Amino acid sequence: MNNYKEENADIDKLVAQIKESSHCVAFTGAGISTLSGIPDFRSDKGIYNTGGSQEMFDLDVFLQDPSVYYDASRSLLYNLDAKKPSIVHTTLAKMEKQGYLQGVITQNVDLLHTRAGSQKVYEVHGSPSIHRCLRCGAQKSFDEIAPVVAQGEIPQCSKCRQAYKPEITFFGEALPQHTLNAAQQTARSADLMLVLGSSLTVYPAAGLPEVAVRHGAKLAIINQQNTYMDPLAQFRFQDLQQVFERINDKLFED
Question: Is 178 among the residues known to form the active site?
Answer without folding.
Answer: no
